[in-house]
Amino acid sequence: VVVVNVTGTVRAWSLASGQLYWTFDISSLVLPASNPTLVFSSPVAIPGSKDDQRDPHQSDRVVIGCQNGTLLCLSAEDGSVQWHRPLHTRRRLLPQETDDDGMGSQPRIESKSQIFATPSLLVLPSTSTLALCVPTTDGRVHLVSVKDGSELVDPYDGRAETFCAPVVFQA
User: Fold this and answer.
1) Across the strands, what pairs with 98?
2) 3-state secondary structure of 12
């Protein structure tokens, strides 16, 4: 079992024996934003692979969405970092607030992309590639490669904040 708490501590243990296998603290990574360790989404188990064949009964990785818009992939075996990537964010200028850098006031830029919803796992029919559908609070829905965290297409703009996990239908 893998569980992550709101402050970003990830633990894996056996429910049968209670043995703790590993612990990982997300704050040990250098992540963008001021509160990188906050986690509100559930971890997603990624089916394992053996000789390039997915085994739906065995997970070898777990992906976690962080409140600051970063996706993190850990090894289910030992908790080592496989990859971590910030999702592309929408930025807007805040005219009422400025940063004074000594060269005059500049409008402050705010990032509006946070992950609160649990990503959904899917298989792309055209390539049999495993991907994640990740909604963010800026209204975008990202399609991300499980292999390396890269964005596979430009995000869909839903134009409204999203806090719920997507339901994915395979065609």
Assistant:
1) 107
2) strand
Query: Long-range pairs for 133-136 at CB < 8 Å and ≥24 separation?
Result: 133/166, 133/168, 134/65, 134/71, 134/87, 135/162, 135/163, 135/164, 135/165, 135/166, 136/69, 136/87, 136/89, 136/162
pLDDT tens by residue, 32-76: 555 557 899 999 999 876 444 555 556 799 999 998 888 999 999
Please identify every stretch of the chain with a pLDDT value under 70, giving residue numbers as ranges. 30-36, 49-58, 88-112, 170-171
Whole-number pLDDT of residue 22 = 97
Q: Alpha-carbon Rg of the chain, whole angstroms?
A: 18
Spell 30-65 as b/e; 16+ CB within 10 A means b: ebebeebbbbebebbbbbbeeeeeeeeeeebbbbbb
Closest C-alpha among 119, 90, 94, 92 to residue 106: 94
pLDDT value, residue 105: 47
How far is residue 66's CA from residue 63's CA, in Å, rounded to a whole number?
10
For the CA atoms of 140, 113, 150, 86, the dihedral, rounded to the nearest 10 degrees, stands at 180
Contacts of 89 (CB under 8 A, 6+ apart): 69, 111, 112, 113, 136, 138
